[in-house]
Design goal:
The protein has helices at residues 3-14, 29-39, 43-53, 82-96, 98-109, 119-129, 133-146, 161-174, 182-195, 207-221, 224-239, 246-263, 284-292, 296-312, 316-327, and strands at residues 20-21, 25-26, 156-157, 201-202. The protein is mainly alpha-helical.
């Protein structure tokens, strides 16, 4: 059996498991298996990785009561309705297809794009990249359950993105966060930004300025949360064609990225541009390092950097992949 067939078989087995485990931690296994397959892992490698990781995940359970959803907006943000969402989206995709379902869904879901620290978005992008219909169903259901909107101002400023983050930086630095995971910190800082009615939206926004913003700040700070803005932005670009109001989607994604940045408590007052000596080299040893690794985030980041390097040819992707290969 080749690695593509093995990947599909393993993803089918993963349908029996919850997208979250432990204290709302995201399962990376479907994305890591897909990334490893793309990077050239053998069928045996994929199977070994699956069996070594699956023990930490939680099996799905049947709901105590059956709820037939007539609209996906009914219970957004309620993890208790995961099984009901699966049934809803399974019906939608079976009857109308993936593209139609996404076009009818994503303009609403994008308001809560930070769901599970961007992992629902990322899982959906992988599902599309690897053409796995049931993974699309799972990702949409997951996104609905973990939907996380922010009630911050939509007022526009004349500032650049970097200037806005610099202005807001002290708020994150000085905030004493309660115990919690990334999504809790993002939600917590968003309430403070909302209470202060601070403007955060740039006058103009596009996918390239957003993408490069995430790359630049992750390069500068090498922070775990900021890593998710890079992989999240890569995934966001993959789903953008299915969204009618692209400007609104970009602004919701920017909003979520700002909250992610501020949730780190880092100092963003010094805005560093891309380094002039950014390397451009051979990805082969980096791919080899990913294939030997059991670090989910390292594998996914190298996968993301390789795909985007092939698309954009920007050396920063090689630099970030090299750093991941030798530091993560």
């Amino acid at each position: 059996m080749n690695n593509k067939d093995t990947l599909r078989q393993l993803l089918v087995q993963l349908e029996d498991y919850q997208p979250l485990y432990s204290d709302r931690m995201a399962s990376h296994l479907p994305m890591v298996l897909s990334a490893l397959s793309y990077l050239g892992a053998t069928a045996e490698h994929l199977a070994h990785f699956y069996h070594s990781d699956i023990t930490s995940l939680q099996k799905r359970t049947s709901p105590r009561t059956v709820v037939h959803l007539s609209d996906f907006r009914q219970h957004l943000g309620s993890s208790a309705h995961y099984e009901h969402y699966l049934a809803y989206f399974q019906t939608q995709v079976s009857q109308f297809g993936v593209s139609y379902t996404l076009r009818q869904t994503l303009d609403a879901l994008i308001k809560g794009v930070s769901a599970s620290a961007f992992h629902a978005l990322i899982r959906l992008a992988y599902a599309l990249d690897f053409n796995h219909q049931q993974e699309v169903v799972i990702a949409l259901s997951y996104w609905c359950c973990e939907y996380q909107p922010f009630s911050v101002s939509d007022e526009v400023t004349e500032e650049t993105m970097d200037e806005t983050l610099k202005r807001l930086s002290k708020i994150g630095e000085q905030h004493v966060f309660s115990p919690g995971i990334i999504v809790d910190r993002m939600d917590e800082i968003s309430h403070q930004i909302a209470e202060l009615t601070l403007a955060i939206q740039p006058k103009e926004i596009d996918i390239n300025s957003l993408r490069r913003f995430c790359l630049r700040h992750f390069y500068q700070h090498n922070d775990f949360t900021l890593l998710h803005t890079v992989t999240g932005c890569h995934a966001f670009e993959r789903i953008l064609p299915y969204i009618r109001d692209k400007d609104a989607a970009l602004r919701y994604m920017w909003q979520a990225i700002v909250m992610a940045c501020l949730s780190t408590g880092l100092n963003f007052s010094q805005n560093e541009k891309y380094p002039l000596n950014t390397e451009q080299g051979d990805f082969s040893p980096l791919v080899a390092a990913a294939l030997k690794s059991n670090n989910d985030h390292m594998i996914k980041l190298i996968y993301t950097c390789l795909r985007d390097f092939k698309k954009y040819g920007e050396p920063i992707y090689y630099t970030l992949a090299k750093r991941a290969a030798y530091e993560l």
